[in-house]
Amino acid sequence: MRPITLRGISYATLKSLVKELIVMRLRRTLEKFVDSLPKLKTVKPTRKDSQKTFYEIAMKEFHEKLHRDLRPTRLWGYEGMFPGPIIDVRKDEFVEVLWKNELPSRHFLPIDQTLHSVAGNPEVRTVVHLHGGATPPDSDGYPDAWFTNGFAETGPDFRRRIYQYPNEQRASTLWYHDHAVGITRINVYAGLVGMYIVRDQQEKSLNLPGGDYEIPLLIQDRSFNEDGSLFYPTQPDPPLEDGPDPSVVPFYCGDTILVNGKVWPYLEVEPRKYRFRILNASNTRNFELSLDSGQSFYQIGSDGGLLAKPVKVQTIDMHPAERVDVIIDFSQHEGEYIVLTNGVGCGGPFDPETDANVMQFRVNQSLIEEDTSVIPKYLGELPLPSKHNIQTIRHLKLVGSQDKYGRPLLLLTNRMWDDPVTEKPRLGDTEIWMFMNTTAFAHPMHVHLVQFQVLEHQAFDLDLYNETGKLVFTGPIIAPSKSDRGLKDTITVPPGTVTRIVAKFAPYAGRYVWHCHILEHEDYDMMRPFDVKRRSDN
Ligand SMILES: [Cu+2]
Description:
By secondary structure, the chain is mainly beta. The protein folds into three domains: about 190 residues, Immunoglobulin-like, CATH 2.60.40.420; about 150 residues, Cupredoxins -  blue copper proteins (Immunoglobulin-like, Sandwich); about 140 residues, Immunoglobulin-like, CATH 2.60.40.420. The protein has six helices and 33 strands. The strands form seven sheets. Strands 12, 13, 14, 15, 17, 19, 20 and 22 form an eight-stranded mixed beta sheet that branches. Strands 3, 4, 5, 7 and 9 form a five-stranded mixed beta sheet that branches. A five-stranded mixed beta sheet has the order 16-24-23-18-21. The mean pLDDT is about 95. Bound molecules: copper (II) ion.
């Protein structure tokens, strides 16, 4: 069909212009460092005994001021909070959560009806995934295990209302977020995200900065309309001439950075050591964090818990879903105002106004008592998967193609989400997964159930491969960065690169997923199921 045009302006462009006039996009940049960093609350269990800890956590709609000069924003959050409350548990503590959907029946963000399981299903579907958790399959938040308000309707893979988290894993910073098929990007954008901390004795024995000196930082990007509401695009840029409206977008970058739910906040600190558990919970945006004082971070942990020993780093690379555990020592910086900066743009050239700042530390508090915490030389032994007995090596291609509307369609192994399962490791097997990125963009790949070890990256001739299918390596085998040498559940695969990881598929059998953690990719259609098979299964 030929696009209808009015004096050279296409109908689709006109339509999006009219939409922008109805809800005016916020064009000014909000003033930085005017609100203090919120301290994330820890949720209290409903019941607790020697057998288990039970929580009831409800997803609710509410309005909250996210910046001094912004009207309250409509949000969806766990327990009516943005971000949701911290769930703080001990290793081996048996936790149950009744996740309740108390949300309205209509979504307030644009839904694309052409994505999997969207058309014909209720608009507001939710399901919760504990990211980085070794969770039984019926509590892992399978995308088709969704449920609506009051469990009135449930998805085809819905199995239980109360989720079980055995927490049989080492101390680590995990996070929980929505994972409903086809609408994860907008459910998370609406606010359905929170942190989950597992603690253990080994970590406690290290005397790291703790209590008020251990602070989670949950970083996300957002854009706003003049009335304070969240802006999320209804069309790619430029808009589709002839395609679904609203449509999924190939990526999303907000022009405003929030930490713990406040726009560009500040934190007043004492001249001493602090531990920060940092999570990048953005849909697409990655960060290259540094401190404008020129000082280093002491990285002590990553996705799957503590590293073997601290690593001194000037910059921290964080793609969506990654966690970094760092100590910052402010003791030599009394009186200084230090900005946590970001060195990379998102979806376009770097814009200092919108991209360069994350938050500010004000070293203006007096020391309450002597800082006796330490940065240990060694943190402990890493329980890495054994490489002596690799049962299977899988070649897993990240592929770019196009749908019938001309939109980019990114796939794994060239299959759609609902194609039959092809990856079936046996329970207890150790496998090498080779992610081969034949697209032009980096993708943060996440595997549920396991914490893996990154073995190496290696560049190949992308053009030659895409033309002839011949795999020719063009560079040496590169070891993972020191920051990525611990246990990971998400690893970024640069374009034209093969990244090898090794994982032991345990302790549960059943159906899980692996996917790109750019949420706009995950929803369309860069996600695949995998089955961990019992030895007795065929
Ligand atoms: Cu991706």
